[in-house]
Amino acid sequence: MLNGKKVLVIDDTPDDQEIVKRGLEKVGIEVILHHCLICVYGFLMNPDVILSDTKTHLNKPNPEYVGLLREAYGDSIPIIGMSAVEESRERWAAVGVDQFLLKPTDFLRKREETLKQVIYETINRSKPYK
């Protein structure tokens, strides 16, 4: 279901990048890693979805950041916010991202089905998983 899908991961922490990458690759997703928005803005990587960490951009999700991603990759690009802090879920939702993942918890092996479901439904805009 997710084989061949590309995910752009924006995270500035190498250890977290590796955990997220391993979790996504286990469910068949191609991962493109970058450490900041500036590095990826304007490049034509054609990801199917973007996962972005909170601290990568001024320690907080904000509408301007989400707007820059949508400008660079198109208004319809699905964006998933991620953070190591559960409280970030509401902040991400307030700026218009499509979904939220808690790291590293949601990227660990015991959560593979949850991870697959979140990515699939985000890419397919709520089309039921399975």
Describe this structure in words.
This protein has one domain (6-123): Response regulator (Rossmann fold, 3-Layer(aba) Sandwich). α4 (88-94) links the parallel β4 and β5 (99-102). The protein has a five-stranded parallel beta sheet with strand order 2-1-3-4-5, sandwiched between helices. The model has no long low-confidence stretch (mean pLDDT 80). With 130 residues, the chain is an alpha/beta fold. The chain has five helices and five strands; from the N terminus they run βαβαβαβαβα.
Care to give the gist of this entry?
The chain has 130 residues and is of the alpha/beta class. It has helices at 14-26, 37-40, 63-73, 88-94, 112-123, and strands at residues 6-10, 30-34, 49-53, 79-83, 99-102.
Could you say what the CATH topology is called?
A: Rossmann fold
Q: Give the count of structural domains.
A: 1
- Helix count from the secondary structure assignment: 5
Q: What pattern of helices and strands is seen along the backbone?
A: EHEHEHEHEH
Can you identify the CATH superfamily?
Answer: Response regulator
According to CATH, what is the class?
A: Alpha Beta
Which term fits the overall shape? globular
Structural class category: alpha/beta
Largest sheet: 5 strands, parallel
Oligomer: single chain
